[in-house]
Specification:
Elements (H helix, E strand, L loop, with lengths): L1 H15 L2 H10 L13 H8 L1 H20 L19 H18 L12 H9 L3 H18 L2 H21 L8 H18 L1 H9 L4 E2 L5 E2 L1
Antiparallel strand pairs: 1-2
Helix pairs in contact: 1-4, 1-5, 2-3, 2-4, 3-4, 4-5, 4-6, 5-6, 7-8, 8-9
């Protein structure tokens, strides 16, 4: 149990690294939370500092989730200190817990007053290592929505929702045997709800018709 606690703590701390704040201070000497939407995430960096730094932050945030799953989880040896009632082996379960904790760290970072980003990129990095096919589809959904609407928030929300939907379609319509489907599905549904929750202000602006659009390779527009 002690080692599991250490792994979860390390995953949380890695997820908590405020990449957007660090990049904005190094590049322009500003705190990104004082500009744009005030959110410490890649989308706000994209709007304020431009697409190159926005993509850099998004990639770094995704890396945090991947590091938790691929590297930190490997510190665990032996079986989990509780009954594993999931269809996953013990190590995969540890990976999922580590990745989820990294997402929590990104959203509620200890290094920035527990006010971080919205968790999309970190969840992407985490889930990509577990359900690669479904995440590729989600990325395509995100890209299409953003290209058509210029709303990153809408693309993020619909991309998140598409993950459990794709799982359901692949398992039940195309009869693909997805390992651990019974636990992966509710897990991705939970992640989707978390992402929708962190985008609740964006949802209100979308409904009101005053959400900011972006230029794909520039700063904020209209």
């Amino acid at each position: 149990m002690y080692l599991l606690f250490i792994i979860l703590l390390l995953s949380y701390l890695v997820g908590s690294v405020p990449t957007s704040i660090i990049v904005s201070r190094l590049v322009r000497g500003i705190d990104i939370r004082n500009y744009g939407s005030g959110n410490a995430g890649g989308t706000n960096v994209y709007r304020i500092l431009g697409w190159k730094y926005g993509i850099l932050v998004i990639l770094l945030d995704a890396l945090k989730g991947a590091v938790a799953v691929v590297f930190i989880a490997r510190l665990y040896q032996g079986s989990v200190p509780f009954e594993n009632a999931t269809p996953f082996d013990d190590f995969t379960l540890i990976q999922i817990l580590a990745g989820l904790t990294a997402v929590i760290g990104h959203v509620w970072t200890v290094f920035a007053g527990f006010k971080g980003g919205k968790g999309i990129a970190t969840a992407l990095g985490m889930l990509f290592t577990i359900i690669t096919v479904d995440m590729i589809v989600a990325i395509v959904v995100f890209a299409i929505v953003v290209m058509i609407t210029k709303y990153i928030s809408l693309g993020s929300i619909l991309g998140a929702i598409s993950v459990p939907l794709v799982l359901i379609i692949r398992e039940n319509i195309f009869h693909v045997d997805i390992p651990g489907y019974g636990i992966v599905l509710p897990f991705t549904i939970g992640i989707s709800f978390l992402i929708i929750y962190t985008h609740r202000a964006n949802v209100r602006r979308l409904l009101a018709g005053n959400e900011n659009r972006i230029n794909l390779f520039g700063k904020k527009s209209g």
